[in-house]
Amino acid sequence: MISIIAKCQVKPETVNELKKLALDLVAVSRKEEGNISYNFYAEISDSSRFTFIEEWKDQEAIDIHMKTAHFQDFGAKAGPLFAGPLDIALYNKLS
Amino acid sequence: MISIIAKCQVKPETVNELKKLALDLVAVSRKEEGNISYNFYAEISDSSRFTFIEEWKDQEAIDIHMKTAHFQDFGAKAGPLFAGPLDIALYNKLS
Hints:
- The structure is a homodimer.
- A 4-stranded antiparallel beta sheet of chain A has the order 2-3-1-4.
- Chain A has 3 helices and 4 strands; from the N terminus they run E-H-E-E-H-H-E.
- By secondary structure, chain A is α+β, with helices and mostly antiparallel strands.
- In chain A, helix 1 (15-29) runs antiparallel to helix 3 (69-78).
- The two termini of chain A are 12 Å apart.
- Chain A has a single domain (2-91), classed as Alpha-Beta Plaits.
- Chain A binds chain B through residues 2-3, 5, 19, 22-23, 26, 38-45, 49-51, 53, 89-95, and chain B through 2-3, 5, 19, 22-23, 26-27, 38-45, 49-51, 53, 89-95.
- Strand 4 (87-93) of chain A pairs antiparallel with strand 2 (35-43) of chain B, so a sheet runs across the interface.
């Protein structure tokens, strides 16, 4: 299993649009064969900051995900909303 | 429910010590009445970076956690191992 934390910040006026795009992405991504979990969070102290926490069976599942129409569609539509680069890291669970 | 992501970086020579302290903290913290989940991760691309992902019933549960002997003991022992300040954020789950 590989876990991903992807943090992003959006322009304040685009928060609602990002939320909709993100929740649509979550719903479809959860149906992918290699997905274990896929969740979306709003940072409490900053309403323009959000985080995805995802769990995938392996790197192949992640590679497949990144080639899906829904992921690429999200990237195309959400890209202009971001206020800067995403902070993405992959993890092995130790506990 | 409140989720917490706490990212840290340790001095390379202290990685094993941090892992032990962190896994001990996870085991005890999971038994707290207000805890929903508590997990510890190693960043794949950097062996000195780690992340906790925690879920708590509410802010009161977090406040209680931070006053526990096991949390304060972790802070005292792990503090000197960190290579810089932790990156901690609290979240509401939207998905």
